[in-house]
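Researcher: Quick sanity check before group meeting.
Model: Go ahead. Protein one:
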Amino acid sequence: MKLQRLFPRATLALAVAALFTPLAQAQSLLDMYQAARGHDATYQAARAEYEAGLQRADQAKAAVLPTVTLNAGVNRTDQEADMASGATTSHDYQTRSTSLNLSQPLFRPANFATFRQGAQQAELAEAQWLAAEQDLILRVSQAYFDVLTAQDGLTFVQAQKTAVREQLAAAQRNFEVGASTITDTREAQARYDLVVAQEIAADNDLRIKKLALDQLVGLQDARPVPLAPAVALPAVAPQDINYWVDQARTQHPSVRQARVALRNAELESTKAISGHLPTVDFTASRSMNRYSNGGPNANGTDSANATTIGVQLTLPLFAGFATQNRLRETLALEDQAQAQLQGAERAVTQGARAAYLGMLSGLSQVKALEAAEASSQSALDANQLGYRVGVRINIDVLNAQSQLYQTKRDLAQARYNVLLSTLRLRQASGDLSGKDLQDINTLLSTAPAAPATIAPAAKPAQSK
């Protein structure tokens, strides 16, 4: 897989557009993901590692391709010779030499094993890149829904503060006309002060979550689009745990990497065994020499050319037991790689099962909380009516209000967790991609509500 296929022009255009989105405009989950692809340092490092892995794979091809070298040199020789007559002769000359040499492996098992390892290296790089893609999808989604969860939490706390303030005012009026005791007012005041403290904590939590999202996607004041109201959450499909387990054992990036490691270990054993085998190379060379002053024999030779073609056989005889020890080492490493593959398969099997059950549990929890929300609303209505007619006390209403808004917060968080569980199940099966974010994007509101904000809190009302 080439990098161009992973970064089509349309995708890059979306990423650039997301980076320059106006601050006041909300961004969808897919917008956030595209922005993060162009900003996140971890992802950029993974992309560079992928490119390096492809280059390492191409380097392995050199082991089976011919090697061609060109040598050139200029030498000056000062030659003196003592003759039998006792005379001494001297001869100086210059040599300019050029040679072209070619070597083509014919039988080199280690080289061909290295070539096959190169193909494995390309698959390893692709598996690592896929893991980085899936990790980024989950990190962006987690940060995105963390902001929405914190935003909903602040919204519900603010709504609860308004309801408690109204209950406090009602308790004060009833106390003033003698319809209730000071206890009701004190209880409402205490609950109001508690909710104000919760509002401050919720506002701080929202600010922190937004900072984390901004840093991840490279935007300022990122505004996630919330879920559409009453949207139907996606169900598990297919509802067969064995399907997800089989998918994970087949295509999960960690299993693919472990399989590549095992095949590479087996090829290392092949290379170690080849230390006992002969090697055969085809060789060819062409040399050209030019002389001055008659050459080495002073016989008037100005040049000498030679062409050599042959086959070279090399047979290893003894290497100090290095080959045998290397083979024992590679066999042990092969056993290690086999055990690591089994461990990876078991881990992804467990992860797929846990993700599948987590998805089912999340969907069931949403249904239960929806029923609990309806029941809590009915309980609050009944307590408010009972308080007005005098059969319920103020603390009953306050407790019912607290229960209702806590249920609303839990329900909102559970819905976001279901969507995250969908992505985690895809990741656990090794099938998570940008398309899954597009599916979630269809569940987002087309008219996002304004994010919750906190105004300076008014001074709590004091009882008389």
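Researcher: Fine. The other one?
Model: Protein two, sequence then structure:
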Amino acid sequence: MKRQIILHPDPRLKKNAAPVADLSDELRVLADDMLQTMYDAPGIGLAAPQVGLLHRLIVLDCVKVDEEKPRPLIMFNPEIVASSDTLNTYEEGCLSIPEQFADVTRPAEVQVRWIDRDGNEQTEGMDGLWATCVQHEIDHLDGKLFIDYLKPLKRQMITRKMVKMKRELAREKA
């Protein structure tokens, strides 16, 4: 089932998500729904707070080439356990901040640990777009958006555009 993606500004996007204590069928369904929502958007990552639920759950799939097999990842309680000193800058966007993009600098490589859909602990080193995406999504679990890395003026400009967009969407629905 496709879920509704919350748009910035929304106080739920600034809250810390709670750790997942027990994997229930309900949480597995949520993860599957989030993957469907992410692919449909289309996007490469989605965090539970973006669909209004404060669980430490993210989904991602950074395979962008049509000939390549998709690689959906479901991560419960993801955490970065190591990161490189080398930095990378990517132009980031966000499904909660549509049509807005900005360069963000983050560690180029990260080691991530999480619990998979079956309750098994996983660890993987990620680099390139995967490293950027997983850091971006984990930030969502900590109430942080990519625009929080920007200078105040640029952040305020994007927020004003989003307020205007939300007003226009509300008018269209009314």
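Researcher: One line on it for the slide.
Model: The longest strand covers residues 73-83.
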